[in-house]
Amino acid sequence: xxxxxxxxxxxxxxxxxxxxxFLTVTGLMMYYNNNALVFPDIEAYLSLNKAGExxxxxxxxFFNPPTxxxxxxxxxxxxxxxSVFHKILGRANMVPFILVIDLTVxxxxxxxxxxxxxxxxxxxxxxxxxxxxxxxxxVVLGAFSGSDAVLSMTAFMFCLYFAVTSVEAKKxxxxxxxxxxxxxxxxxxxxxxxxxxxYALLKKCEKAVRKNYIPAISRVFGILAIFFCLLxxxxxxxxxxxxxLRNNGFFDIKTYTVDSFFKDGFxxxxxxxxxxxxxxxxxxxxxxxxxxxxxxxxxxxLFCLLSMTALLVDFFSMFAPxxxxxxxxxxxFPVVILPAVKGIHDVAVFLDDRKIKGLRKESxxxxxxxxxxxxxxxxxxxxxxxxxxxxxxxxGDSKVSKYLEN
Amino acid sequence: xxxxxxxxxxxxxxxxxxxxxxxxxLYTRFRLSAPLDDAFIYFQYAKNLAGGRFFEYVAGEGYxxxxxxxxxxxxxxxxxxxxxxxxVIFLTYFTGAACLFFTSYxxxxxLVKLGADRTIAIFGAALYVTNGNxxxxxxxxxxxxxxxTLIAACMYYMVCGAPxxxxxxxxxxxxxxxxEGFFLAVIFAMLKIINRLFDKKEQVLPYLMPVAAGLVYxxxxxxxxxxxxxxxxxxxxxFSLNYYxxxxxxxxxxxxxxxxxxxxxxxxxxxxxxxxxxxVFILAVAPGAADEIKNKKASVFTTAFLWFFIGLxxxxxxxxxxxxxxRYSMPFAVIFTVFLAYGLSVIIEFIPFKTSKQKAVYxxxxxxxxxxxxxxxxxxxxxxxxxxxxxxxxxxxxxxKWIKANIPPGERIAINDAGAAxxxxxxxxxxxxxxxTNGQAKIFRDGIGAVFEEAERVRPKYWMxxxxxFNYEGYTVFKKPRLNTxxxxxEPAYFVVGSPEVAVETDFTLFNSGDTxxxxxxxxxxxxxxxxxxxxxxxxEQKHGYRIWAGRPPNLPGTLFYESxxxxxxADVKVLEGGRIxxxxxxxxxxxxxxxxxxxxxxxxxxxxxVKQEIYIDGQKAGIWETSQVPGYSNMFYEDSxxxxxxxxxxxxxxxxxxxxxxxxxxxxxxxxxxxx
Lengths: 406, 677
Fold this sequence. Notes:
The structure holds two protein chains of two kinds.
Chain A: H1 2-6, H2 11-32, H3 42-56, H4 77-89, H5 94-120, H6 126-134, H7 137-143, H8 149-164, H9 173-184, H10 187-204, H11 206-211, H12 213-236, H13 242-247, H14 276-294, H15 299-316, H16 325-329, H17 334-353, H18 361-389, H19 398-401
Helix pairs in contact in A: 2-5, 2-6, 2-18, 3-4, 5-6, 5-8, 6-17, 7-18, 8-9, 8-10, 9-10, 10-12, 10-15, 12-15, 14-15, 14-17, 17-18
Chain B: H1 3-27, H2 38-50, H3 70-76, H4 88-114, H5 118-129, H6 132-138, H7 144-159, H8 164-177, H9 179-198, H10 205-225, H11 231-236, H12 246-265, H13 277-294, H14 300-316, H15 333-350, H16 356-406, E1 412-415, H17 418-423, E2 428-431, H18 440-444, H19 447-458, E3 462-466, E4 484-486, E5 501-505, E6 527-534, H20 538-543, E7 547-549, E8 558-565, E9 574-582, E10 585-590, E11 599-606, E12 611-617, E13 620-627, E14 637-644, E15 654-660, E16 666-668, E17 670-676
């Protein structure tokens, strides 16, 4: 397995990207905290406190540590895993330890993403997609947030990996196990896990689905959408009352636009480069249309299911003003980046066929990727700086300050 | 470009100038004005140049670096020999129209050389010259038109493969027109150096000449003012702030940059270009740049890509980046327009038409869409232009004429819009913002407290300021009543002028009132003052190597300016002083001490709160200075002291450091350093 996973990996590129991002993020973190390592979001410390309580109780509070987490971003599994290290390493070493883990996991995510990209994308596009993934703001912020995000991103990536590799060969164990782990990371992870398992089920029952493909797929989407609406309403709407809705800022918006209804903008437009999701949409349509033509559910259907879920999460997050979307949505972004890069390729091939002077396929792809990568690098830098600058508002909290004491 | 097309663009340029001139004339009720006060800064420099005074803003007061475009001022100067007063405004319409024509000419030629057909080339030129925003810039009296034309010319000579000396000549002019032009010349020279690494035949030396030409401006500044940067950059650049966090400056600037690209170039705000224009631009320029990079020979596409994106970036880290209709970024729209038109031609090529007639109809439809958009940009900007001219006339020009008529010649007058007020009056101005007064820009960046401290030195007898910038009306600085007020009805488009501009005489009553202690700290003559530090007085701070910092990034120390009584001092003794506030600490050098003698530090602060500072002398901890609240008093100054044992004073000059240890912020206005006799 290890040999298979490592084979053909652009190790130098992954190492350079991981270290580059890690050094930038930790450098900024230290700059904004007078050389101390402080995670910018309280969510990380909620998990750390839970882990500490579990460890301090000699694991008696394994299922019910006293610290209250956030429903959308503080699951059961992450503190449970951390508690073991908390016991071994002690409180003072937890933040540096988590950062090292984050770096390792980030490199692992890149490796897995590359593997998936090699399968999903046409030749030569995987490395470009890898660069785009490693520079995407929610991915960087989530991976180095010190929160549950790192675990949910890993579990999600494994699910995706098995979905595009093993499931095609009718092997389900890997996907089922990783989906179960993903489900334990929290409510949002559970929703994505449900998508993966549904996909596995569709593949398992491929022959039956083929007989009545469109109605069957439509029903799956419909049922999951209703279920997720209820779930996300429970997760994000703390209290359903007129007063709550009035006080959460949603009704204070001066001019409503489509973006007002989504935390990260419509189709994540506030966190991705301009036009990026246009390509994502192009590729997704092509993928799902060809799968519909063959009456065979494939990555297109899976990506659509996951996208629908993410869009609903983004919509319901608007009812929780304090929620930081990158912590619970960072896991999802491979699902946008892979089709988007494929979309760029498809459009470039299409234009190349027209034999227009100066518009060769390679130059079009490289040209657009240069623009997207530059935009992402600037945007991500800005968001990391913004997050670290906001750390000043949590350092006074006892949940955080106890991790700053030597 | 054939003769008829040339004529068309020439007549159009003249017509556009006439339309904008009429708008100005109607809005100002048949008077002459410009939409920006800054244009008059160039006119003033040009006037004095024509009079043999090398970049003197105030005659007889020496060189100042307030003309960001030295070349533009030099080009204007011969005309100033025979153009007097407002008549120079006529010239700006002639130069604007000429630049407009030449820009269209070069855009046409670039597109033809890039392989676009003639119709697209004409469309590209029309796309630029029919945009009302750029017309606003070309007829503003600023160097925008000249800069844009030079960019277009350089691109043309680049794309047509002109001899290196021709390219170098135009690049040299580009490098001299503005600092941003210098950056473009540097980028181009660097590309040539990179090309040389892969192709030994590539010439490099001719392209270094423009860089050298551009450097001349910075060297002249250094020679005459001691600073390479012009005053204009010092007064506006985010990197010229006295206290800042680089990461915060980068974040704010880059956020503005991305927003600017999406709102303005991608049509988000539907102001300069229609929606999705950026996509078309990228489609046209990025693949070409990628091709050139792959072939290891950077040429027009790579240059255009870098010039556009880096050029824009170079304008964004400025407090003025988003006002004046984005005038600093405007010249780069030439590059954008060329490749926008080229991209549209690509899109037209992309669709398989059955007949050439179909293609022509489709091309005409796309062109019409863009030109229709442009028609409304003209409609909008003709009105904006007229209103801006009207309001500049109502404030800046009227203020200048009033100064000429009412202020005795030779009297020092503090101003904050340096252009028309000086051009029409030739007064001895002291520019509070620091564009035309050397050394003032740094002071201006620290707020009205620091500016007042400097004014205590300069002692201007009169002030002509916008209250939104320098509102000293709540303090004993301005005599009442005002001598005159120049109002406008509403804030004009593009923030060219604004809040009421007032003319006042100075009330010197409280000038230098903060320089002395109001309480007796001598302990019956046992202590004498050896040194003092006027915090917020930038010159005094520099003398003492003063540094202040906040407790943690991204916070910064703040500035204060108060007029009040002092707790414990007589009730008729007021103090007016600027100060600073922080939760971090300060560091400075105290000079002229006697070794081994106790040092008493007296500090003036405002409305004391409980604070606690660790004090270090030359790195050695010398004590903790605690200050508590004074019950029963509020909104008053207070003077507190702390004595350090003489054992810590081991040299004549010591470095003193205070580090705040409480969670509160402390403020400081003045330090006095006393030693035992």
